[in-house]
Amino acid sequence: MSSNFNVVEMIDISKSFFGVKVLDEVSFSVAPGEIHALAGENGAGKSTLMKILQGVYSMDSGEIQIAGSKVLIDSFQAARKHGIGMVFQEFSLVPELSVAQNIFLDREHKNRFGLFDEKETISKSKAVMEEIGLSIDVTAKVSTLGRAYQQLTEIAKAIAGDAKILILDEPTASLAKEEVDSLFKVLKQLTLRGVSIVYISHRMDEIYQICDRITILRDGKKIAVSALADITPQQIIAHITGRKDVEMLTHEGKSVERSSVPIFEGNGIKVGNRVNNVSFKLFPGEILGLAGLMGSGRTELVRAIFGMDKKDEGVIKINGSKVSIKSPRDAMANGIAFIPEDRRRQGLVMEHTVKQNILSANLSSLSHKSFLNFSKINSVVDHAIANFEVRPAEANREVRLFSGGNQQKVVIAKWMATNPKIVLMDEPTVGVDIGTKVEIMKLVRSIAAEGKSVILISSELPELLGVCDRILVIRKGEIAEELERKEVRDEDHLQMIVQGIRI
Amino acid sequence: MKLPNVRKIDLRATLIYWMFAGIFLFFAILLHDDGFLQSNNLLNIFRQTATITVMAVAMTFVISAAEIDLSIGGVAGLTSVVCALMLRDYGLIQGILGGLAIGLIVGSLNGLLVSRVGIPSFLVTLGMQGVAIGFAALITDYHPVPILNDTFNTIFGSGTIGWFPGLLVWSFTAVVIGWITLTKTTFGRRVLATGGNRDAAEFNGINTKNVKFKVMLISSLVASIAGLLYAGRLQTGRYEWGAGDELSAIAAVILGGTSLFGGSGTIVGTFFGALLVGLINNGLILAGLPVSQQQIIRGMIIILAVALAKKK
User: Fold this and answer.
1) Strand ordering across the sheet containing A321-323
2) Do A440 and A319 sit in the same domain of this protein?
3) Domain boundaries, chain B
4) Third-level CATH fold of B34-310
5) In CATH, what number is assigned to the domain containing residue A145?
6) How far apart are CA B219 and CA B212, in angstroms?
7) pLDDT (tens digit, 9 = 90+) per residue, A391-408?
8) A225: which of A74, A276, A361, B186 lies 20 to 30 Å off by Cα?
9) What digits encode the pLDDT tens for the residues B29-43?
């Protein structure tokens, strides 16, 4: 029974947040039994589109058809009813329950006394596992499984709930090679049963390995749809990147003196199995970019440098002398500042005011014998607000009331007030509008112009190309390439190197 | 998406004063003939709430750091007993130091278990409460231990400075020190940052384990001072002193406007919260209600008031 309809047909979907258009008449369709890649940069609109399909967001205009008929998806439950299953990046499993119990969580089999029917649950779970060709002990506790099997359990759960469409968002980010293979086997098996899969990934090799078609979004618009057989990786990358804001991209060539003693030197840094034997130097006034895919170990590396995570091996030298950094306090004492990836969770206390947040990282310099020096605090805070153009310029306003871009400026202002020598930045422009992005990149340049050194992680390659003097490409926890800025031709070139595609 | 309303938060922050004024007026009218407004009765309210105030000030720090301390009542009881025994057998100074040592020991244990071992403070201090009360009952065989030392009883209980009750000096001192520490020192900022967002606090270079250890230690130490106040006011050490005070102190803190989830705290609010708890107790006693009815009404008022204070 093959239908002529697409399983999912999203037509002319538009969506704005606070007057900013994030989706502009995007159409997207998935055929039965197809694995369809959804690609685009961060902020291109992929996750918003998928959240509309899952009923998390409502669309401003457009239409969704499931198997040929128009449907209204206004809640997560409605999406589930229409057979749309999501495999969460952060797993939605209960670790202390068994695989079987998790698969039928919320849909438990009851016996005639109305009690939980363990036997039925186990046998049904086994049937689901067999169907998708998996051998997992369904009575095992989820917490005893590895990440990959947890993810497969998550998929089994969606299938048991009669999902006809699965959405996988960067499913391989934390998986090892063999685990990826078994995941792909399961996905192929599922398509034979007529299940369709939307596969969101930044990894070109995986997309080619498993997907049938690809839809590419950029800046909230659909740029291209193509069978993967008809498109080259170069073309995909060109579609994804497009032409970028010229100002941000333009690299202001500057020379960095590298004959002197490096301000920072890491030797043989190892963190678990995420960062392996990483060594590099950083010179005064230099902006060093860390490029790499999600899960490549970039974040783990800078976290370890800042003392948030324990290094298993490795030596860190500041100004040529060995230092021991075991906590953020040690790092700060050595003049290191860290602007973390997730400003809401790690950067700010959202319920506190701008002043209180700036104060938190500067307690010792803004106090005398542990009593706060309020006149000094006020002048530092006012200066920071003016200098970093925080809008509105209200020191006593809670930061949760500011826009994402202004929150990020508060984080940066807070750290620059500590007068650091080395500034680590992890994805400083995530979730901020383009105008603020440009401002933040200017800030990065001006920080370096003051003679401070910057290590910048960004998934947005134009940013790296716009400001960095040197770029380290991290792959699987190791430095795969070290590139002088002038060695990189353009964004596509860098993207190829990050992806590990030989030219 | 709608933007959070700023004004409502302000209402919540000042709610305690409205509630305080409202209930005060209510009793003033209803219990006028029972002598509610007489200065003696009003001073009594202060006197009766002194121990709760002192403990609630420390509890403000604990809750602001997103922890809880259920052992303070037990610590106060054990302190009163140990102090009474050592005072009888060794002398005044030894008695006082012995009592404070209880706070130091229990507080260090609580702090270590919470910050280093990582057991939730709720469980640690719930267990510690039982240990402290049981220990106090064990070493006295459930008997009260009288305190005959007048100096001790004057300093910690019945003494006055002019007409001003000594107990009030203790509670005002606690409020002033607590207020300065929370609003004017780096430690206060560390407590609030830790309770507001522990991850962010760590990224800011704040040693959050250290902060959690310190708030638990301070809470127990202050509870042992409250234990001395019990011993001085009632001129005995007894394992039951302070029983249930943890709930009154927590109620005072939350009523005062400190967030139960950490990150924001107000000592002045706590002070009025403690007074409100005392006011309710006093009014119910004056109204001549039996203890059973007092307990029911007090419980309901506190739940209602906290529900109002919590609502954003």
Assistant:
1) A275-282, A264-271, A313-318, A321-323
2) yes
3) 34-310
4) ABC transporter involved in vitamin B12 uptake, BtuC (1.10.3470)
5) 3.40.50.300
6) 11
7) 889 999 999 888 888 899
8) A74
9) 988 888 888 888 888
